[in-house]
Amino acid sequence: GCLSKGDFVIIAAYVNTGKTILAVSEATYMAQQLVEGTVLWFNNEEFNDKVIKKFWNATLNSTSKLIQENPISAQVAYKKKMRGDLNRIKLIDIRNKDLKFIKNQFKLLQPSLVIVDQIDKIPSLTKKTWQEHHRLKDLYGAFRALANEYCPVIAISQADATTRWFDKQTQAIKYQKYLDQSQ
Questions:
Q1: How far is it, in rounded angstroms, from Cα 55 to Cα 89?
Q2: CB 42 within 8 Å of CB 113
Q3: Listed range (57-61, 71-75, 76-80, 174-178) with the worst mean pLDDT
Q4: pLDDT score for 16
Q5: Residue 4: count of CB within 10 angstroms of its CB
Q6: 63: Cβ–Cβ under 8 A, 6 or more apart, which residues?
Q7: What is the mean pLDDT of residues 31-59?
Q8: How far apart are the first and last CA of the chain?
Q9: Which long-range contacts (CB under 8 A, 24 or more apart) does 46-53 make?
């Protein structure tokens, strides 16, 4: 079914397997369907300019080179696809920002969809006795609450190294297709 307020989705896979570009593909497709509202992209992973270029490439189904060669026509086309709003997808850099800052952005901007790349890197308060899985449970719970209050949230997470191995028979690195909770 469609994404709805209250949905909290996690995209998780190993390093350099296409998590960000998958989310870009989905965010740009969904942004084009919005009559009004904004997609907020909270970024603490790749360089901001690189992610913004991916928004444009995906929306226009074009290369960066073609967009740079025809910037005016690219802007017109992008604006048209985004229903007249060049800022339909708003990137917010959250490097060194905490959950309080992010909650304030939700409240201030009232988004229609939120993407968090990468959720696990967001600093959060922990108790001295907490292990990492306790911190993540608390952090994910906070985002589920935000999804319930505001809009669907898609979070990107990085799986641990147990999701890949070297296959001696094929002499290639293999990746686990389905992750389990421990990863």
A1: 8
A2: no
A3: 174-178
A4: 82
A5: 9
A6: 57
A7: 96
A8: 26
A9: 46/20, 46/117, 48/91, 48/93, 51/20, 51/24, 51/91, 51/117, 52/91
Alpha helical stretches, state H, the chain = 19-33, 48-60, 64-69, 71-81, 99-109, 132-149
CB distance 59 to 92 below 8 Å: no
pTM, two decimal places:
0.88
Over the stretch 148-165, which tens digit does the pLDDT of each residue have? 999 999 999 987 667 666
Residue 41 carries which side chain, given as an amino acid letter? W
DSSP code per residue over 14-56? STTSSHHHHHHHHHHHHHHH-SS--EEEEESSS-HHHHHHHHH
Task: Note the residue count of the chain.
Answer: 183
| Residue 16 φ/ψ, nearest 5 degrees | 55, 45
Return the higher-pLDDT residue of 69 and 124.
69
What is the mean pLDDT of the segment spanning 133-154? 94
72 Cβ neighbours under 8 A, 6+ residues apart: none
Q: Which residue is associated with the tokens 């449970």? A: 137
Q: How many CA atoms lie within 13 A of 156 on its CB side?
A: 24
